[in-house]
Amino acid sequence: MITSKQPIIILLVEDSPDDVFFFRRAAGKSGISCETHVAVDGVEAMDYLLHKGRFADVAAYPPPGIIFLDLKLPHVNGFEVLEWMRREAECAPAPVVVLTSSSQPEDQQRAEALGAALFLTKPPAPDQIRHALQTSGLVENSSTSL
Amino acid sequence: MHEPTKTTTLPIPDRKAPGLPTDIVNILLVDDQPGKLMAHEAILSELGQHIIKARTGVEALEHLLRRDFAVILLDVNMPSMDGFETAALIRQRPRFEKTPIIFVTGYNTTDLDRLKGYELGAVDYMFLPVVPQVLKAKVSVFVELARQTQIIKSQASDLAAHNRRQADQLDVIQKLNAELKLANSELEAFSYTVSHDLRAPLRSISGYVGVLLEDYGSRLDDAGRNHLFALDRAAKRMDALTRDLLAYGRVARESVTLEPVRLQPLIEAVIALQNTGGKHPAKMIVAPDLLDVMGQSFLLEQCLGNLIHNAIKFVPPGVTPEVHLRTEPYGARVRLWIEDNGIGIDASYHRKIFNMFERVGDLHRYEGTGVGLAIVHRAVQRMGGGCGVESAPGQGSRFWVDLLAVPPNRE
Question: B26-130 with B257-410: one CATH topology?
């Protein structure tokens, strides 16, 4: 477990700059110290986790404690990233929270079947992000009061 | 018609088959003696067929080129080209290979021997002088044969045409099915795009409005803040409209298999989704003995979700919504009542409200897309049921939905 002294490393896989903005803002208001890194599609997400390409510098891009994954991504979509993470067991170091713009039950079931820990409708509110970090065991529940 | 003599041993086949286009066939008489031709024609005219006469073998061949014959009555003893030579020529053509020939010959063995010498296929012979009854009987056998052959041929060609039509229709149906499948999958893709890409900017608009209000709200006056609220309402309204239209599309498209559904837990789940607090949490009174119905869960959820949503929404300001739900048997159906204490609906609108985009509530006071009851109507229709309302302004509304009851053997 990471102590609250060190910021929690979040990998946000999201192609929409607006949604990246809303996520950073909500994470900033969650009351939890965290550091958000962004991959803009599925290919970048895999590169980040493998320390490849522009994410080769591990110090600048440390392994994430949690991944927030949009399902609708260019090139390689969220489902494919989830499948890839399941196949490459050593590359699945972090719980995955799926972000979606629709609350389609089919999407939710498929994401859950692929090992997603949580399912959030975009844009997530600060307390939803905090809840996600808590249920993933990254912060203690005691530090949660509004 | 009565036959004067019953001496004949050859049966005269019944050629009566009214209405068939193949009733009349051709008979060819070939003889160099006009008297014999006329005598034979007189005997055979009773058969009611089309009789054609030829004086020579050559003339006979000319007729054969022009039409088909059921039978040829061919005199053996003719000058220049006799009957056997004529028959040999006829048989050379594949089209006449099987045309029956009756030779008319004098009673002498030379002719019979020569007949055997030619291999002339389907032939018969008659001795002179001809006995009318025998001639008629023999010819009518071949006439009947030709008629039957024609009937079978025309039936075969009818059947072939029918099969071709069926194959064509099958092709058309398969093509339509493929087009429909394509259209459906395009519609699915379209719906998916609408629900994601079209709604994403609306979400961003609402998001940025929230950011503006939070970070800069204190620097705006009331008018400025109200503009932002209006902007947010507009974005949310368009989002709701998009969502409802998608729901309507899915209700209209969803494949329907009716099965017994327990209304009690389904309604309780729908209420749990709808009644999420607010200023005046609604009082929902659900009868504990709701009857089961034949339906489909998704359609029922859409239908009841919208009805319950409306029942809670359309109340006068300051009034706590109170909604009663109960069922009663209604013939082979079950009638579900959703009764509210809302603003009520004037009788002149009772039909109209189930149409797309019809709204009767005050737009400023009651947010809505005008799609909800159209979804209800479509969903109920697709489950083979009906719906309606009893209401008057100021007296609440009593919406009813009829659904098929579960047959006793399926409980």
Answer: no
Query: Do the chains contact at A101 and B203, CB–CB below 8 Å?
Result: yes
Most confident segment among A70-74, B108-112, B137-141, B354-358 = B137-141
Closest CA to A67 of A38, A88, A26, A28: A38
CB contact under 8 A, B199 and A101: yes
Residue of chain B with shortest Cα separation from A106: B192
Average pLDDT, chain B: 84
**Residue length of chain B:** 411
pTM recorded for the entire structure? 0.56
Q: What ipTM describes this predicted complex?
A: 0.76
A and B: number of Cβ contacts within 8 A: 25
Query: For testing the chain A interface, which of B196, B215, B273, B301 should be mutated: the one with the most A CBs within 10 Å?
Result: B196
Structural domain spans, chain B: 26-130, 183-252, 257-410
Residue-wise DSSP of A122-144: SSPPHHHHHHHHHHTTSS-GGG-
- Superfamily name with CATH number, domain B257-410: Histidine kinase-like ATPase, C-terminal domain (3.30.565.10)
pLDDT (mean) for B367-375: 82
* pLDDT tens track for B101-138: 998 887 666 666 666 656 776 678 888 888 889 899 99
Q: What is the spatial order of strands in the sheet that B322-330 belongs to?
A: B283-286, B322-330, B333-339, B397-404, B386-391
Of the listed ranges B10-24, B122-136, B280-294, the least confidently predicted one is B10-24
Inspect the interface and report whether the beta carbons of A123 and B196 lie closer than 8 Å.
Answer: no
Residues in chain B with CB shorter than 8 Å from the CB of A22 are 204, 207, 211
B200: left (phi over 0), alpha (psi -120 to 50) or beta: alpha
Give the model confidence (pLDDT) of A93-136 as tens digits.
Answer: 688 999 987 666 777 788 888 888 888 888 899 999 999 998 87
Secondary structure tally for chain A: helices H, strands E: 5, 5
Task: Reply yes or no on domain B26-130 having CATH 3.40.109.10.
Answer: no
Do the chains contact at A101 and B204, CB–CB below 8 Å?
Answer: no
